[in-house]
Amino acid sequence: MSLRDFGPNELMFLLLATRWTILLALVAFAGGGLIGLVVAAIRVAPTRPLRWLAAGYIQFFMGTPILIQLFMAYYGASFLGYRPDPWVAAAVTFSLNGGAFFGEIFRGAIEAIPRGQWEAATALGFRFVRTLRLVIIPQAIRLMLPPTVGFMVQIVKTTSIASLIGLTELARAATQVNTVTFQPVMVFGTVSLIYFALCWPLSLYAGYLERRFATGMTRKVEKPLVMSAV
Amino acid sequence: MQTALQFGPILVHLDLLLRGLEKTIQLAVMSILFGTAIGVLGAVGRSFGPRFLSWPIACYVELIRNTPLLIQLYFVFFSLPLFGFKLSSNTAAIVALSIHLGAYATEILRAGIEAIPGEQIEAAKSLGLGRYRIIRHVVLVPAARAVYPSLSAQFILQIMGTSIVGAIAAEELTAVANNLVMQTFRSFEVYIIIAIIYFVLVQAASLLFAGIGKLMFRWKA
């Protein structure tokens, strides 16, 4: 027996919850992108211990499930004496996790730039950060762009697991509506369509960028990571 | 602030952790087998099947790849009983995980199939090979070899993806962890241990897939 039918009110509730999904995805994208840039720079830096540190960071975040990372952040906060807040835990986890994946994407693009560019910059008297900022990254951007947009799809989908620490975004709103209406086909069908509407344009754009930038490369880029963690 | 990490109270439940690990491996193996089977059928159906098949397969791939696994899991778990399929949470998990992987595997294998030069197939035809043997020996095996690295990366992600099926109370490693948290109240320590277990599992699986790849595709392409 259902308490209510799936109607316009329920649809509105889901659509309103979507803004938290979008907001969380934007936070994760910005945070992950910034961390990723730093991680990628450290991964190609001349100092070896720094490179190892970044490699370890990437190993941990790519080698364990993001849900466990999320739980660690959420319950780790209470271990350190803070009241765990699902928003903070989710923002931190998704940024750190995204940072690892973006770091690898950016590194791939940076390493695809011919060695001679580094040597030319050194000959001009540029140091590491300056070379990266003025010579390498401007050229690497067109290589980074398609997988970066592709990974945004991943981020939007992954925000759904924030529901498991109690954040009321789209996935959690869906389970709540399902509990009162007991019309899972309608509820999860609708929610799937909402996620699809968010993700598909990004997927198409990533595909377009990939085709557009596929020609005229100096060196073949490593195939972008195919990711589906959640 | 609690004073120190205490792993002792959790490690006495090692048997529970190991049983959870076993369930996780079971879920991963089953869904990888079924998912890959779906992927082979999907890729072959799209490349060689009748035209009316190619559109639905493309829809399946796009729909699954652009929605979260968690929602797919909920859909399967809550909807199928309405249609008369009574599923245990573990069966529902395997169904959802297989459908999920199937879409990615279809796409990966299709990319491999499309990379096979048309001349290869022409050459096989002129040698008098039949359709089935061409698909199997001239297309599928070289395509599988070419995409094996991407495919095994996807398998690794699938192993980590199993962690969310605890959300429908399937009893894998993460669900065991959640139970242990309730028993011991040492949440942070529990998830540290679980993270280590997953990490070791993922590293072991990477080695295993690399080994299998070497065995299966011994000769160079």
Automatic annotation (TrEMBL), chain A:
Q: Which family does it belong to?
A: Belongs to the binding-protein-dependent transport system permease family. HisMQ subfamily.
Which InterPro entries does the record associate with it? AA_ABC_transptr_permease_3TM (IPR010065), ArtM/GltK/GlnP/TcyL/YhdX-like (IPR043429), MetI-like (IPR000515), MetI-like_sf (IPR035906)
The residue ranges of the ABC transmembrane type-1 domain are 18-206
Q: CDD domains from the entry?
A: TM_PBP2 (cd06261)
Give the highest taxon in the source lineage.
Bacteria
Which organism does this record belong to?
Mesorhizobium shangrilense
Q: What is its main location?
A: membrane
Query: Which keywords does this Swiss-Prot/TrEMBL entry list?
Result: Cell membrane, Membrane, Transmembrane, Transmembrane helix, Transport
Q: What is this protein called?
A: Amino acid ABC transporter permease
Query: Does the keyword field hold Endoplasmic reticulum?
Result: no
Q: Name one Pfam family in it.
A: BPD_transp_1
Q: How does the entry describe its membrane topology?
A: Multi-pass membrane protein
Q: Where in the cell is it found?
A: Cell inner membrane; Cell membrane
* Transmembrane parts of this sequence: 20-42, 54-75, 87-106, 143-165, 185-209
TrEMBL record, chain B:
Q: Which residues cross the membrane?
A: 27-49, 69-87, 146-170, 190-212
Write down the membrane topology: Multi-pass membrane protein
Task: Please name the Gene3D superfamilies in this protein's record.
Answer: MetI-like (1.10.3720.10)
- What InterPro entries does the record tag this protein with? AA_ABC_transptr_permease_3TM, ArtM/GltK/GlnP/TcyL/YhdX-like, MetI-like, MetI-like_sf
List the CDD domains. Answer: TM_PBP2
Q: What keywords tag this UniProt record?
A: Cell membrane, Membrane, Transmembrane, Transmembrane helix, Transport
Q: Principal place where this protein is found?
A: membrane
| Localization, UniProt | Cell inner membrane; Cell membrane
Taxonomically, the superkingdom here is Bacteria
NCBIfam families attached to this UniProt entry: HEQRo_perm_3TM
PANTHER family from the entry?
Answer: ABC TRANSPORTER PERMEASE PROTEIN (PTHR30614:SF35), MEMBRANE COMPONENT OF AMINO ACID ABC TRANSPORTER (PTHR30614)
Q: Which family does it belong to?
A: Belongs to the binding-protein-dependent transport system permease family. HisMQ subfamily.
- What name does UniProt use for this protein? Amino acid ABC transporter permease
